[in-house]
Specification:
Helix content is about 10%, strand content about 35%. It is mainly beta and about 100 residues long. The protein has a 4-stranded antiparallel beta sheet, with helices on one face. A hairpin with a 5-residue loop joins strand 2 and strand 3. It is globular. The N and C termini lie far apart (about 55 Å).
Length: about 100
């Protein structure tokens, strides 16, 4: 399920434990992957080599040269409350809905 999540940046910080050895070259790609994992992913860490890793643990520790993005609130990517249109169903015309009695 596609979700859009907020991320809070923490400079000189990294997650205590990374999810896997898989990494991404772009922050946007790592955040998209993290968002799609739902509650399993807690955020993203950038290492000294500009690689981005996902984390399943929300524990943060100090890491000089590292940057962490802590995942916050998420919402369904297909729904945006300010862009929704509510359409009223068209009702039948009363005169044309009458059935003549015989």
């Amino acid at each position: 399920e596609d979700q859009i999540c907020d991320y809070a940046v923490k400079v000189n910080t990294k997650f205590f434990k990374l999810a896997t050895t898989v990494y991404y070259y772009r922050l946007a790609d790592a955040q998209t992957a993290c968002s799609r994992q739902g509650g399993k992913c807690k955020g993203v860490t950038r290492d000294l080599y500009e690689r981005y890793y996902l984390s399943e643990n929300s524990g943060l520790i100090r890491g000089t040269g590292y940057t962490a993005w802590l995942k916050g609130n998420c919402e369904d990517a297909q729904f945006h409350q300010f862009e929704q249109e509510f359409k009223k169903e068209k009702s039948a015309d009363c005169d044309s809905a009458l059935i003549p009695l015989l």
